[in-house]
Design a protein that fits this description.
The protein has one domain. Helix content is 59%, strand content 0%. It has 6 helices and no strands.
């Protein structure tokens, strides 16, 4: 396989199942059905953490396969809400906000000074 073949193959893959099958990763359809976007996003996140992509096509293929398998396994052992891949799952985490009492009192007419 050449670099061009690998790049072309990657550009033609569109679903989580396509990626898993291309890299020869056995998977449970029910896990993928529920978590397909999460798996692909985690795979993308793992790829973005790679500092230097190998030059050899076979090494690149192996790295991609290992990272995809890791992304898939994250959701076999866990779930989307726990893994919090997408921002929407992190939006409801507790936040602390403070407003000085003097700021509030300044907005009320005839409020005593603090």
């Amino acid at each position: 396989m050449t670099d061009d073949d690998f790049d072309l193959d990657m550009s033609e893959l569109s679903s989580a199942e396509d990626f898993l099958e291309y890299f020869g990763i056995q998977y449970d359809r029910s896990v993928v059905q529920v978590n397909r976007l999460h798996i692909l996003q985690r795979f993308h996140d793992y790829l973005s953490q790679v500092e230097e992509m190998p030059d050899a096509t076979q090494a690149r293929w192996t790295l991609h396969a290992d990272l995809l398998k890791s992304a898939y396994q994250d959701f076999v052992a866990s779930d989307a809400q726990t893994e919090k891949v997408f921002r929407v799952f992190r939006m409801h985490e507790p936040r602390t906000a403070s407003v000085p009492l003097s700021d509030l009192m300044g907005q009320v007419k005839h409020a005593p000074s603090v």
